[in-house]
Amino acid sequence: MAMNVIKLHLGKARAAFLGLDIGGTKTELCAFTASHRFIVSQAISTSELPRGSLDLVPAIRAIFRENLTPTVKRVGVAMRGLVVDGNVAYSSLLGGEVNQPLAGNLSRELGLPVTVRNDVSAQAVAELRFGGRAPDESMLFVNLGTGLRLSFFDHGRQLGGKKGGAGEVSLGSIFIPEVAEGSIALSDLLSGKGISNLHRLLTGEVMDPAEIFRRAKQSSQREVVEVFCRELARLLAHATFFYNPHVIVLGGSLTLSADAYLSRVRELYCAQVIPLLQAEEITVSRLEHGGCLGAIIK
User: Residue 216 in contact with residue 260, Cβ under 8 Å?
Assistant: First the structure.
């Protein structure tokens, strides 16, 4: 199945790296030159892949085999889950707790070096390397996409934790007084599906995240966006007390609507964190194909 749904058309381009980013909604395969310059990509819905079991592994292998050329010298995978040194301890994409040595297995089967990273960690690695970040600064990367996750780097070194679970804040819950249920999971608030869920809870109406932010000045959506801003600022403030980063970088699909909320988030953040500890910058990643790019960085 996978061999028929992702096929890159390289033309005369000489690809040195192939990066596969398997997200909650979209799966993208990218080709890069030896200098990490983007060549071409193709994306499909992740629902077209055999999610939820180890059947995804042969599908990943088939995607790479279909697109390998003699010039490719490394491939990489970015995927949701707990990943340490190329070993996937847990991933809903693979069926849960699997302890799968994915990088090693793929490397033997493909005959090439393989890198496997958590998808948000891959975006953060790419931002650190190609986003104009100073090598001596600490960076907190916050993914606001299908889900929610943090990734922290200090002087180029990632804080990963025992099983690669550092930054898995989406598993926690928070009290939201505006919501009848009271407590709500962070992933059901500070993500694409989250703000849609919040909008439904507060207004009774289902609405796309981009539309919610587009209507941010209208009465119904104004309250939703204000709650989102308040809780995102609170999360960034608490993360600052833990990590004390030089810079906070937001990534993920919700950053496409950052003009509707970023200035308010900065304002609320600064009201909670003393100037001495505040991040010097809260900004949005401008990198394209960051998950694929971070997946192939050694």
Answer: yes
- What is the DSSP code (8-state) at residue 25? S
Separation between Cα atoms, residue 263 and residue 283, nearest integer Å: 10
Element (H, E) at 46: none
- 166 shares its domain with 227: yes
Distances (CA, A) of 169 to 123, 147, 238: 17, 10, 11
pLDDT at 296: 97
Query: Rounded to an integer, what distance in angstroms lies between the CA atom of residue 46 and that of residue 109?
Result: 23
Residues 39, 179 within the same domain: no
Side chain identity, residue 56? L
Q: What is the pLDDT of residue 1?
A: 42
- The reply to whether 170 and 73 lie within a common domain is no
> Does this model's pTM top 0.90?
yes
Q: Render pLDDT for 219-243 as a digit per residue (tens, 0 to 9).
A: 889 999 999 999 999 999 999 999 9
Pairing mode, strands 26-32 and 17-22:
antiparallel
Residues in a beta bridge with 282: 248
112 and 146 in one domain?
Answer: no
> Of the given ranges (38-42, 163-167, 199-203, 274-278), which has the lowest mean pLDDT?
163-167
What CA–CA distance (Å, rounded) separates 213 from 195? Answer: 10
Residue 17 lies in domain: 2-124+290-296
**Backbone angles phi and psi of 152, in degrees to 5:** -120, 135
Q: Are 86 and 73 in contact (CB under 8 A)?
A: no
What are the C-alpha distances in Å from 12 to residues 15, 30, 203, 263?
Answer: 9, 15, 53, 44
**For the CA atoms of the chain, what is the radius of gyration?**
19
Is the backbone of residue 273 left (phi > 0), alpha (psi -120 to 50) or beta? beta
